[in-house]
Structure formats: C-alpha cells, structure tokens
Amino acid sequence: MTRNEPALVSGIVAAAAALVTLLVAFGLDLSDVQQNAILGVVAVAAPVIAALVTRSKVTPTSAINAERLD
Q1: 16 lies in a domain?
Q2: Which has fewest Cβ within 10 Å: 9, 25, 36, 53?
Q3: pLDDT digit of tens for each residue in the chain (70 aa)?
C-alpha cells in the first residue's frame, strides 16, 4: 500500500456498491434490505480499517512539542 490509504476509503465504499449492484444484475438474489445492510457495513468498516492502518503509521510528536516549549 501507499501512504495515501485514507484517501481510498470513498473508493472502497463506491467499489462495494458497484460490486453489489453487479452481482444483483447477474442474478444474485439480494433484497433491498440485504443490499443496504452490506453497504452499511462497508461504509462503517472502511473508515475504521483506514483509521487503524493510518494510526499504525503515525509517529508521536510529543518530543518535538516539548522542544518547542523550551
């Protein structure tokens, strides 16, 4: 992955929506409620996963802030 993972969240949600629509168009029997549930889970999970990935790559800056106060 690149350093721009958070920017991909909306792309992941859009891709999931397109995939569900495609599967339904090709005969997968999903009700509107099921489709909305799948998209709802993706809409919640994508930002959470992106936040976890981003958080794991963040370096604390408390030492830098302490130097500025001196």
Answers
A1: yes
A2: 25
A3: 455 555 677 777 888 888 988 998 999 998 999 989 988 888 888 888 877 877 777 776 666 655 565 5
Domain count, the chain: 1
Closest to 38 measured CA to CA, from 28, 26, 52: 28
DSSP the chain: --TTGGGGHHHHHHHHHHHHHHHHHTT----HHHHHHHHHHHHHHHHHHHHHHHHHT----HHHHHHHH-
Residue 36 in contact with residue 24, Cβ under 8 Å?
no
Residue 54 in domain? yes
Q: Which domain holds residue 58?
A: 7-69
C-beta of residue 39 within 8 angstroms of C-beta of residue 16? yes
